[in-house]
């Protein structure tokens, strides 16, 4: 099968012909319909993620068609269109039994701990516990974009911070996570302030429903948010994984505010100096979140199918597999609005 392979950190991916993936007894093999290119893939490409061993096939935001089914799989058959969370849980441990599959101690993460979906086909283990049906009318490119950014934002907003209608949300970073959080928060009935340093991305967010935007390159963002919201945001989302935006998100909150760390801290940002005086005096809550359990997918898919949220503004570029390297390298600097999705695996 055709795949894009990382053979050296920060090196262009090599388009190679690899052996077909092996189907586990509890798993399936999918023909990949689409795969998103995510900032988390960039962390792998740069060598910042210690789970990645070379050579490696990236890609963790995917949907596909079931081509092969393991002997122990009961829920799926050949031809089913499915989507998977990027964390594949075991489904049986105490964490999974409590509904917290994203904390499963034996989790499998395609694109990081196992071969990913920058390929024509991918093996997905533990299929009965992790896959979710993909609505027939849903564009595969949109479904792939859900796989990390939208699902993580949805779980962060609803499963962690419990964002309520009428509350103010401040989003630091207007990439895929940030745009997802904005669109979903608006569907919930919240008001949203978007923060970035790229004017083009702020204009894009404003055009698609942001109540207000703040350019942190020219403005004291926390102060501006406190003024816009008459005291501070109720909830803040950090969507980049860097110290400056994490500090800004905490300082933008009103008292008893909630902040969700969605951006992945890696490399020099694994340790940060944070304003704990603001946490203490403001009695703030700080949540970490990573992914979304498979059992929560229907609530999100139903919201989309019912037309209550339009996520198509997320998709900026549909690219061939051969363009994956360029998309990863682009994360080294300010990126344009929207996200890229691989939809053509033949080129």
TrEMBL record:
Cofactor(s) essential for the protein: Zn(2+)
Xref: PANTHER family: ALCOHOL DEHYDROGENASE-RELATED, L-THREONINE 3-DEHYDROGENASE
Family statement drawn from the similarity comment of this UniProt entry: Belongs to the zinc-containing alcohol dehydrogenase family.
InterPro entries: ADH-like_C (IPR013149), ADH-like_N (IPR013154), ADH_Zn_CS (IPR002328), ER (IPR020843), GroES-like_sf (IPR011032), NAD(P)-bd_dom_sf (IPR036291), Zn_alcohol_dh (IPR050129)
Pfam family, one: ADH_zinc_N
Name by which UniProt lists this protein: Zinc-dependent alcohol dehydrogenase family protein
Residue span(s) of domain Enoyl reductase (ER): 8-342
CDD domains tied to this protein: Zn_ADH6 (cd08260)
Assigned keywords, A-Z: Metal-binding, Oxidoreductase, Zinc
């Amino acid at each position: 099968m055709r795949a894009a392979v990382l053979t050296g950190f920060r090196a262009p991916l090599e388009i190679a012909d690899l052996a077909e993936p092996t189907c586990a007894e509890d798993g399936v093999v999918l023909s990949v319909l689409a795969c998103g290119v995510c900032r988390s893939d960039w962390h792998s490409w740069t060598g910042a993620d210690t789970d990645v061993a070379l050579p490696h096939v990236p890609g963790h935001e995917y949907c596909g068609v079931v081509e092969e089914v393991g002997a122990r799989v009961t829920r799926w058959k050949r031809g089913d269109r499915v989507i998977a969370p990027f964390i594949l849980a075991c489904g049986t441990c105490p964490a999974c039994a409590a509904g917290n599959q994203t904390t499963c101690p034996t989790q499998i993460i395609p694109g990081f701990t196992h071969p990913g979906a920058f390929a024509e086909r991918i093996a997905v283990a533990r299929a009965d516990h992790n896959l979710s049906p993909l609505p027939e009318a849903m564009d595969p490119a949109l479904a792939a974009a859900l796989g990390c950014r939208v699902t993580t934002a949805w779980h962060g907003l609803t499963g962690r911070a419990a964002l309520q209608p009428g509350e103010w949300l401040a989003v630091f970073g207007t990439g895929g996570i940030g745009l997802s959080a904005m669109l979903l928060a608006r569907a919930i009935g919240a008001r949203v302030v978007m923060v970035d340093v790229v004017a083009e991305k702020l204009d894009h967010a404003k055009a698609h429903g942001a109540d207000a935007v703040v350019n942190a390159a020219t403005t004291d963002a926390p102060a501006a948010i406190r003024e816009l919201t008459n005291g501070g945001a109720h909830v803040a989302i950090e969507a980049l994984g860097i110290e400056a935006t994490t500090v800004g998100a905490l300082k933008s909150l009103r008292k008893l505010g909630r902040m969700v760390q969605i951006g992945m801290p890696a490399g020099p940002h694994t340790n940060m100096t944070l304003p704990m005086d603001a946490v203490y005096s403001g009695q703030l809550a700080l949540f970490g979140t990573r992914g979304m359990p498979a059992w929560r997918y229907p609530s999100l898919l139903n919201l989309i199918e019912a037309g209550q949220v339009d996520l198509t503004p997320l998709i900026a570029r549909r690219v061939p597999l051969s363009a994956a390297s360029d998309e990863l390298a682009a994360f080294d600097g300010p990126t344009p609005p929207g996200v890229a999705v691989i939809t053509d695996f033949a080129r």
